[in-house]
Amino acid sequence: MAQPPSTTTTTTTTTSTPPPEPLYGGYTRFELELEFVQTLSNPHHLNHLASQKLLQDPTFIAYLDYLRYFTRPEYAKYLTYPGPTLKALDLLQQEAFREAVWRLDVVGGMVEGGMRGFMEEGRDG
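The chain above was modelled as a monomer; its predicted structure follows.
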């Protein structure tokens, strides 16, 4: 005689782990963004971006705005030089700075006196 179906219910719980973050050339998106945002502390690199007309591209400007998440302490702690990096990121939000950074005299002033000096000079004239 056949056994009646069991009245006991078996529940299987599966814990799904999120899929691994995609890699781009072996690096996570965060690692690439961290590397890029740190290059902004180099005035010569800012000049290069300006010479390539990236600082006039609305999509690139929006990307710079997106990168402002690095100003939050939980992300800023990963920056090697947080002061200059975050200052550059802040200055790049200003159209006047994006227009001025292509000039070599501005870049030279930034190299000699740091970005603080550039901002003081900008207020005078």
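The helical segments are 29-39, 43-51, 58-66, 73-76, 82-91, 95-100, 104-124.
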